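Input record (one chain):
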Amino acid sequence: MNTLTRRNFLLSSGFGLRARAAQAARPNIVLIMADDMGYECLGCYGGTSYKTPNLDELARCGVRFNHAYAQPLCTPTRMQLMTGQYNFRNWHAFGVMDPKERTIGHWMTEAGYRTCIAGKWQLYSYNPPDFEPEWRGKGKVPKDSGFDEYCLWHSGHTEEKGSRYGDATWLENGKLRKDERDRYGDDVFSEFIGNFMERHRAKPFFVYYPMALTHAPFMPTPRSAEWSTGDRLKPNVKHFGAMVEYMDEVVGRVLRKIDSLGLRENTLILFYSDNGTGQSVTSRMGDRVVQGGKGLTTDAGTRVPLIAEWKGKSPAGKVLDDLVDSTDFVPTILEAAGISHPPGVPRDGRSFLPQVQGRKGKPREWIFSHYDPRPGHGKEAYTELKRFARDQKYKLYSDGNLFDISNDVLEQRPVGARKGGAEADRTRRKLQAALDSMPPAS
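The corresponding structure, as predicted from the sequence alone:
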């Protein structure tokens, strides 16, 4: 027994045997998540400021969701995405995941998948010694996250994190690489993922790629003129557009690698974003100007792209208005892999795999958000606890304010009780019931 690896032991158990029996039919799953990029940035959503041909093509070949939402800040979304649970269940402090928390990495590995995470971590407290010292050194480290292999930026204390872009720093399977000259973070991460997929092409694999792009600081990319002039580490919001376009280029590399390995027809590809665009950025959707709303609970902070493609199984060019939030990824991925929901783990999400496969499924009637930033270092501006439930048109906050988002996207005109008509009244009751079904905030 003591000579078996953890993986071999799990695969020799009953759960592992069931996983191996179904392995041949199991798809590879690649989940890519952009950082700080709202839906308005992509051409396939009507964005006109930036060129995103690879993601536009992915949407043309797959399913695009018009009503995908995230938490207003990155780490609250990452917690929900990796555990399938609302933040009120397991959110303790910004950038901190409980070391005992189980993640999608654990469940996929235990079911026989080869697993990899590359990109941004930010789940281990990065407070400096003089800021909320009670949280310093707490959280989950990458080696305990359930993934077989990892290549991650921002995996330790703030003074160790270095650059995520030019001359990058990263932790690769336990080895810290610091200030690597001429290496760009998302080039490193996508190359690591490509090598991982090639080495494990004969078995089902799960890749989770939380990108560094397009989060501030807004830096030149390797395609920028400033990259070769010595200004690659000088931030300026003017670089945001180039970062969006480089993000699209990097996604294209991952997709082409899947193609070159002959795996496209057996790979479920999911593209998402962790929250809206930074507030210093303005983008255009034709004549409409959209200011980023990261940190806000408006659409500008929470409405994000979601594109899914499973070649040969997903209907090409399908556009859906079904609601999706970040808790839905765990049940979707587990269902695609043929894995039962883990016993004892709350199931807050709902699988959207049927919709990806062209079936009706069981779409949500509402989504719920418990947003409690509990700021960490550098996040002092985000302090207010907010709770709301929403559907495609209306949003109801726990303070009783109802907004018709379809006509008031900035949430400036609350709909008064019994003044919005029969539709608003019905929706208020539905959303209030959703809020009432949740435990009170603590």
